[in-house]
Amino acid sequence: MRIIQSSIRRIAFLLLVLAYVDAQSGPLPVEPPAPPWKEFVKTDGHANEIPIEWLATEAGRFAHSIRLPDSIPQTVPFDFTAARWRALKPGSKSVARQYWEHLCATEAGSFILKPVENVDGFFFMRPVGGATEQQNNDRWKLEAPGLQASWGFKYDPEREAIGFVNPPYDTYHWVDFPDPAGRGVLHMSGFVDRVSPMKVEQQAESKARYGLIWRGIRRERDRDHLISGSEWIALDRQSGEVLGVLRDFAISGMTRNQKGGIYWLIAPRCPFRKELYGGVPLGEVERWVAMTLRPAVYPKSLKVIDERRKARRTK
């Protein structure tokens, strides 16, 4: 069960905090829905323009400046007119569902370009930040709501580091996270569940050669159809070389008892993940980064996935 420990903690933390706030002070103040994006800019990391709001932080600007190698799948045009005609037939899929399946089939997946062996640790370069309940229910508020909604209620680097440093399940020696107070980075090491606490050291900057960063991606009319795209990128910080890309798309709009059916926390995501993670749906980026930036000791979490994959293939 520990393989999914960090992700369960993120989700449980979000739900418990929301319940506590509701019990103590009643319903949260209702914020107005975010307006549709209006100002877009061109960046080096994308073929199309992205909302200017995505570049509000230094880490965001860096993430969206990263150019992916040509071997990463490019955008394939989607015929919205044909999809609308298909959707008119009884029992047919909606345009949104057809579009999401198209994006998953043509663009999504795990693309490990250059795995690195014997990696002691890395720099988690951009905080995810999590999502509030209102952000979970909004079309426009978040950059990558399908990704961000599963990261708890607020940024908690020590809690998140447990997903990378916790042998024998997660076997990096250390991981660096940006300090929430803005004072450099937190260098974290030494955690073993029920044995030793996380050791947290303040550093002016990360000395890690390798980094992991996330970003939202925008496709034509995607958020109009309640689709959210995202990428995790593993890179060599010395050379700038992209080592791997994990690209996924989430679709919402189908949740009962939610306005507009929007609830990103449980939004379906692309089916390639079932094979990639052996049917284990949580702790995904923790597993993927270990497939790309490989620790010297093979983590037990990946051994469990290997066993699940083998079992699925022999059925």
Return residue spans where pLDDT drops below 50 for at least 5 consecutive residues. Answer: 1-6, 13-29
List the quaternary state of the chains.
Answer: single chain
Query: How would you sum up the major sheet?
Result: 8 strands, mixed
**What Rg is obtained from the alpha carbons, in whole angstroms?**
20 Å
Number of helices: 10
Mean pLDDT: 89
Envelope shape: globular
Q: Briefly note the structural class of the backbone.
A: alpha+beta
Distance from N terminus to C terminus (CA atoms, Å) equals 23 Å
Strand line-up of the largest beta sheet: 3-12-11-10-4-7-8-9
- Helix % is 25-40%
Order of helices and strands: HEEHHHEEHHHEEEEEEEEHHH
Strand content: 15-25%
Strands, count: 12
Characterization of the model:
The longest helix is centred in the first third of the chain and has 21 residues, at 5-25. The chain has ten helices and twelve strands. The radius of gyration is 20 Å and the shape is globular. It has 315 residues and is of the alpha+beta class. It starts with a helix and ends with a helix. It has helices at 5-25, 58-63, 80-87, 95-106, 133-136, 145-148, 157-161, 272-276, 284-292, 300-313; strands spanning 40-41, 50-51, 109-112, 121-124, 165-166, 170-171, 174-178, 185-189, 199-203, 210-217, 227-236, 242-251. Mean pLDDT is 89; it is low at 1-6 and 13-29. It has an eight-stranded mixed β-sheet with strand order 3-12-11-10-4-7-8-9, with helices on both faces. A two-stranded antiparallel sheet has the order 1-2. Strands 5-6 form a two-stranded antiparallel ribbon.
